[in-house]
Amino acid sequence: MSPEVFVDVLRDALYIVILLVSAIILPSLFVGLIVAVFQAATSINEQTLSFLPRLIVTILALMFGGHWLTRVIMDFTEGLILSIPSVVG
């Protein structure tokens, strides 16, 4: 296995990890920002107020994007397995 192949596989894997994590984290980040602005505007300093909406949005992102997330991981794994003969041989 040449170093170039290893770097390509690692780069693709890191790209997929960043893509999948951002698909889950970014909606939660936006909801947290909206709740923080609401808390700052109303002077409500309750810590649990920001937790529940972020949790719900994260669960919804997993529910609605779960099929896509699984498909991306399966495509990457399938491509990795199919490339084994060309990498080894």
From TrEMBL:
<feature type="transmembrane region" description="Helical">
    <location>
        <begin position="13"/>
        <end position="39"/>
    </location>
</feature>
<feature type="transmembrane region" description="Helical">
    <location>
        <begin position="51"/>
        <end position="70"/>
    </location>
</feature>
<keyword id="KW-1003">Cell membrane</keyword>
<keyword id="KW-0472">Membrane</keyword>
<dbReference type="InterPro" id="IPR006305">
    <property type="entry name" value="FliQ"/>
</dbReference>
<keyword id="KW-0812">Transmembrane</keyword>
<keyword id="KW-0975">Bacterial flagellum</keyword>
<dbReference type="InterPro" id="IPR002191">
    <property type="entry name" value="Bac_export_3"/>
</dbReference>
<comment type="similarity">
    <text>Belongs to the FliQ/MopD/SpaQ family.</text>
</comment>
<keyword id="KW-0282">Flagellum</keyword>
<protein>
    <recommendedName>
        <fullName>Flagellar biosynthetic protein FliQ</fullName>
    </recommendedName>
</protein>
<dbReference type="Pfam" id="PF01313">
    <property type="entry name" value="Bac_export_3"/>
</dbReference>
<comment type="function">
    <text>Role in flagellar biosynthesis.</text>
</comment>
<keyword id="KW-0969">Cilium</keyword>
<keyword id="KW-0966">Cell projection</keyword>
<keyword id="KW-1133">Transmembrane helix</keyword>
